[in-house]
Structures are given as structure tokens and as C-alpha cells.
UniProtKB/TrEMBL annotation:
<keyword id="KW-0067">ATP-binding</keyword>
<keyword id="KW-0548">Nucleotidyltransferase</keyword>
<dbReference type="InterPro" id="IPR056818">
    <property type="entry name" value="GlmU/GlgC-like_hexapep"/>
</dbReference>
<feature type="domain" description="Nucleotidyl transferase">
    <location>
        <begin position="15"/>
        <end position="284"/>
    </location>
</feature>
<dbReference type="Pfam" id="PF24894">
    <property type="entry name" value="Hexapep_GlmU"/>
</dbReference>
<dbReference type="InterPro" id="IPR005835">
    <property type="entry name" value="NTP_transferase_dom"/>
</dbReference>
<dbReference type="GO" id="GO:0005978">
    <property type="term" value="P:glycogen biosynthetic process"/>
</dbReference>
<keyword id="KW-0808">Transferase</keyword>
<keyword id="KW-0547">Nucleotide-binding</keyword>
<feature type="domain" description="Glucose-1-phosphate adenylyltransferase/Bifunctional protein GlmU-like C-terminal hexapeptide">
    <location>
        <begin position="307"/>
        <end position="410"/>
    </location>
</feature>
<feature type="site" description="Could play a key role in the communication between the regulatory and the substrate sites">
    <location>
        <position position="106"/>
    </location>
</feature>
<protein>
    <recommendedName>
        <fullName>Glucose-1-phosphate adenylyltransferase</fullName>
        <ecNumber>2.7.7.27</ecNumber>
    </recommendedName>
</protein>
<dbReference type="GO" id="GO:0008878">
    <property type="term" value="F:glucose-1-phosphate adenylyltransferase activity"/>
</dbReference>
<feature type="binding site">
    <location>
        <begin position="187"/>
        <end position="188"/>
    </location>
    <ligand>
        <name>alpha-D-glucose 1-phosphate</name>
    </ligand>
</feature>
<keyword id="KW-0119">Carbohydrate metabolism</keyword>
<feature type="site" description="Could play a key role in the communication between the regulatory and the substrate sites">
    <location>
        <position position="67"/>
    </location>
</feature>
<comment type="function">
    <text>Involved in the biosynthesis of ADP-glucose, a building block required for the elongation reactions to produce glycogen. Catalyzes the reaction between ATP and alpha-D-glucose 1-phosphate (G1P) to produce pyrophosphate and ADP-Glc.</text>
</comment>
Length: 420
């Protein structure tokens, strides 16, 4: 229960989204854009999931800290997230690293990104700060986590999920007691400790934290004065509070938004090309784990004004058709065949082309007779007529960036090299 009657706690919160990361494991996909700005799901960007969760949870004051190659991200935020109204006690601040504290310091770590903007955050006079990572795919009701934070009396509440131990070395791993209090926190351990009674499972941090605002500001100021700190939540702030304060673990399974009672707790870190391809292709399943059609918890984004998708020609071997695919507005499938493909806005696939297991970003042109399988194609690429990818892995690896799972990432510079 909040301090102001029955008002949701989310109305007293500010969401601070950390969106400065490069995401270097996405290889050329982040050459020109930060990881949170990478396209996902046919119409969205990765950051839209954290922002949509905040809005759908009732949080109406949001700040986004940007840093690495932020132009694409900032332009998306300006076009797609400009509907907040100050007169309704709403705000949306874009906070690029701008040397506000020191003339020679960008954001040093995740905690420093918040610390450098304390004056802006304090001006909103919020009771709670919800710190979010801007680079994961999931649906979550932060109101549930806020309530648990208040009821437990914790100094910090950490969002966490159970993860296969073999996959958890890249995350903060915690050990909790039976009541949910965190007794140890290890940032990205090489040998992640298992959960009690679950030898193959670790409890991983989602990079989501809830603080009382004043307490957070005090901790950030303390941390900023520590010359030995990395000024990072996972490396410094959270381990310090585990040792010296009261840190509580919030289980994602209790606040995950499911489209039906049968769905599991869906959360994906799409930080590698294989993981990115897989999460997008999964959306073509008959009943995908992530439901983009759920109108009760929509994923907000910038929606371009486009004509409907168009399928033309109906001759043998030249039939515009798509099976188990998602095709966005402005696409033209001209006598070509798609199977398990996800096409973003404005893609054109020309006659006699065959496309399978493909994630194709906006405004790609696929030339006549091309055969593409197991590919991720970056925005605006012009695929030459007759190009074949996905049938000879060794040959593909010489021309394109090919992953361990055999997924080929194709960019325009790679195509240009084919002709030199």
C-alpha cells in the first residue's frame, strides 16, 4: 500500500533506463547503433520492451541514459516516445553522456550514469527509482516489484531469474535465503554457484533494481567518492549493499506478464547474433512464447506510416507467398517464397527468390532468384540477383560473418566486397 491511499506505487516512481551499451557480441549490427537501438520483432527496437514495460506498469516518468553511437537510438526515442505530457505529471528525459560532472569524464559505469544526472532526477521528486537495462526482451509488471520492495523494507530489490548454470557466467549471480534476502552477489563469475537443491541452476540478476530515491542518491554519492570503485551497480553498489545493507531478491516469475497461464517466464538476452536470430525466428511459431499480439500489454514503438504488405504474381515457381512468417507494412513479396521469415518495414523480395529462416531488417532489397537461408540481413542491404547463402557454410564464412550455429550476418559492405 502506498503512502497516498490506493495510488499505484508506479505513479511515484521514475524509471532510469541504462541504454549506453555497445553490444559488441552483435558484431556488425552494432557498428552504427547501440545495442538497445537494434531492430527486433518486425517493428520494434530492443529498448522498446523496457520502455513499454514501464508505461504499461503505470510509470510515467522515464529517463534514458545513452552513450555509444547514440544517434539512431536518440532519433528513435524522439520519434516514438514523445507522447509524455508535463501537465499530466509525465516526463521523458534523454540523457546523453555530456561531461556534466567533469570535463574529461563520460559515463564510467552504470552507477555513474545515474550519479551524473542526480540533479535532473531529484527535480522530479520521485519516491522510488527503478533502474532498468535497456537491452533485454521480456514483459514485466514493475508495480509488482515495487510493492514487494515496500513490503519487505529492503534497501534495494534486485530483479532475478533462474537460469541454467552453464549459461549464467555473463550475469550477476546471487545466493538467497528462504525468505528472499540476498547473502552474496558475484558479478559475472567464471564458475557460477548453483541454487540450493538445484545443482544445474543459478539465480541471475536481470539488471533491474528498485531503490527508495533518497537512499539511492546517498549511495551514489558515497560510491562516487570511492577511488577504488568501478562506479557500477553490478560490480560495486549491489555487492556493497548485500554486505552492509538489506538486499532483497524479486523473482521474475511473480511479475512476468504472460499471455496465457501456460506460458513460461519469457526473458531473452539477445546479445549474440545466434541468440538474436533465434529470438526473432521464434516469433514465427504458431504460438510463440513471446506474444506480440497481446493488446493488454502492447509493445509501444515508433510506427512508420506505410502501405500494407503486398503479395503479387501467381504462376508456378513465381508465386508471392509466405508460410509461418511475419511481414511488416510496406513490404512487397513479388513472385517470391518466404518460409519462417521475419521482415521489417519496406523490404522487397523479387521474383523467383526463396527466403527461409531469415531476419531481414528495414528497406532491404532481395534480388531476383536469390536463395537465402539462416541469415540476418542489416538495414538497407541490396542483395544481388542470384546470390546463394545458407547452402555451403564454408563458402558463406569466406564472404559473410557466419556464426557457430551457421547463421550468416550480411551487411552492405560485405556485399560491396563481393564485386571487388
Amino acid at each position: 500500500m502506498s503512502a497516498v491511499g490506493n495510488e499505484p506505487l508506479a505513479r511515484q516512481a521514475l524509471a532510469f533506463v541504462l541504454a549506453g551499451g555497445r553490444g559488441s557480441r552483435l558484431l556488425e549490427l552494432t557498428d552504427r547503433r547501440a545495442k538497445p537501438a537494434v531492430y527486433f520483432g518486425g517493428k520494434s527496437r530492443i529498448i522498446d520492451f523496457a520502455l513499454s514495460n514501464a508505461v504499461n506498469s503505470g510509470i510515467r516518468r522515464i529517463a534514458v541514459a545513452t552513450q555509444y553511437k547514440a544517434h539512431s537510438l536518440i532519433r528513435h526515442l524522439q520519434m516514438g516516445w514523445n507522447f509524455f505530457r508535463p501537465e499530466r505529471n509525465e516526463s521523458f528525459d534523454i540523457l546523453p553522456a555530456s561531461q556534466r560532472v567533469s570535463e574529461n569524464m563520460w559515463y564510467v559505469g552504470t552507477a555513474d550514469a545515474v550519479y551524473q544526472n542526480i540533479d535532473i532526477i531529484e527535480s522530479h521528486a520521485c519516491r522510488f527509482i527503478v533502474v532498468l537495462a535497456g537491452d533485454h526482451i521480456y514483459k514485466m509488471d514493475y508495480e509488482v516489484m515495487l510493492r514487494e520492495h515496500v513490503e519487505s523494507g529492503a534497501d534495494v530489490t534486485v530483479g532475478c531469474l533462474e537460469m541454467p548454470r552453464a549459461e549464467s557466467s555473463g550475469f550477476g549471480i546471487m545466493h538467497i535465503d528462504e525468505k528472499g534476502w540476498i547473502h552474496s552477489f558475484l558479478e559475472k563469475p567464471k564458475d557460477p554457484p548453483p541454487m540450493p537443491g538445484k545443482p544445474d541452476v543459478s539465480l541471475a540478476s536481470m539488471g533491474i533494481y528498485v531503490f527508495n530515491a533518497k537512499f539511492l542518491f546517498d549511495q551514489l554519492k558515497r560510491d562516487a567518492e570511492d577511488p577504488n570503485s568501478n562506479h557500477d551497480f553490478g560490480r560495486d553498489i549491489i555487492p556493497y549493499l548485500v554486505k552492509n545493507g538489506r538486499a532483497f531478491a524479486h523473482q521474475f516469475s511473480t511479475s512476468c506478464v504472460r499471455s496465457s497461464s501456460h506460458n513460461g517466464a519469457y526473458w531473452r538476452d539477445v546479445g549474440t547474433v545466434d541468440a538474436y536470430w533465434s529470438a526473432n525466428i521464434d516469433l514465427t511459431d504458431v504460438v510463440p512464447e513471446l506474444d506480440l499480439f497481446d493488446r493488454a500489454w502492447p509493445i509501444w514503438s515508433y510506427a512508420e506510416i506505410t502501405p500494407p504488405a503486398k503479395f503479387v504474381h501467381d504462376e508456378e515457381s513465381r508465386r508471392g507467398q509466405a508460410v509461418s512468417s511475419l511481414v511488416s507494412g510496406g513490404c512487397i513479396i513479388s513472385g517470391a517464397a518466404l518460409r519462417r521469415a521475419l521482415l521489417f518495414t519496406g523490404v522487397r523480395v523479387n521474383s523467383y527468390a526463396n527466403v527461409e529462416n531469415a531476419v531481414i531488417m528495414p528497406y532491404v532489397n532481395v534480388g531476383r532468384g536469390a536463395r537465402l537461408k539462416n541469415v540476418v540481413i542489416d538495414r538497407g542491404v541490396d542483395i544481388p540477383e542470384g546470390l546463394v547463402v545458407g547452402e555451403d557454410p564454408e563458402f558463406d564464412a569466406k564472404r559473410f560473418r557466419t556464426t557457430e550455429q551457421g547463421i550468416s550476418l550480411i551487411t552492405q559492405p560485405m556485399i560491396d566486397k563481393l564485386n571487388t
